[in-house]
Amino acid sequence: SMSSSLSTVPHVQALGCASQLFFLVFCAVTEFSLLTVMAYNRYVAICQPLHYGTLLGSRACAHMAAAAWCFCFLYALLHTVNMFSIPLCKGNTMDQFFCEIPQILKLSFSDTDYLREAGLLMVSVLFAFVCFAFIVFSYVQIFRMVLRIPSEQGRHKAFSTCLPHLAVVSLVISTSIVAALKPPSISSPSLDLVVAVLYSVVPPALNPIICSLR
């Protein structure tokens, strides 16, 4: 994507476009899945510490992570195959710095093809919403437990660790939903670009700080 953006002739081959789309969907869905697993892990560790060894041993955590990676790989593959089986007849120019689903759908041949991929997008939105709801529920239970900590320093440490994760998850999910579901009447190249940067560039830049340094 950076190479295409910086090039004086910003072209991308079909295989490169498919690769961008696959890894975008794969990484996004994997992040939602793993953050959901992490939220459950923290919930059990903080709210049910005596049962942690039974519910979430190292093998259980490895199995959940592996299941998330496998599911996301298959889901991204399904999206990519479906998108590139749609005949494109409305040109070959996208007002975006990478290949994303809404931009490719604008070039689709018929409303039937559009609705087929739109159905998959709705499944993605539902999946993201379920993950977000589960994460919020887990953190609500965690915060209720943290508020019982008598030490103000302990409460501050717990909140400063958890809140940045929720902020990034909220940013990714909200901007992804806007990108997928915004009506064509309010669509514009500048708005599409801003939304795409918010969900594809900002979270990866913040993740190393939040997940590692914190």
TrEMBL record:
Compartments reported by the entry: Cell membrane
Membrane topology term: Multi-pass membrane protein
Record InterPro entries: GPCR_Rhodpsn (IPR000276), GPCR_Rhodpsn_7TM (IPR017452), Olfact_rcpt (IPR000725), Olfactory_GPCR (IPR050516)
UniProt keyword terms in alphabetical order: Cell membrane, G-protein coupled receptor, Membrane, Olfaction, Receptor, Sensory transduction, Transducer, Transmembrane, Transmembrane helix
MF GO annotations: G protein-coupled receptor activity; olfactory receptor activity
Domain G-protein coupled receptors family 1 profile: 1-211
UniProt GO cellular component terms: plasma membrane
Membrane-crossing residue ranges in chain numbering: 20-40, 60-78, 118-140, 161-181, 193-213
Main localization, broad class: membrane
Pfam families named among the record's database cross-references: 7tm_4
PROSITE patterns membership: G_PROTEIN_RECEP_F1_1, G_PROTEIN_RECEP_F1_2
PANTHER family: OLFACTORY RECEPTOR
Annotated protein name in UniProt: Olfactory receptor 14J1
Record organism: Podiceps cristatus (Great crested grebe)
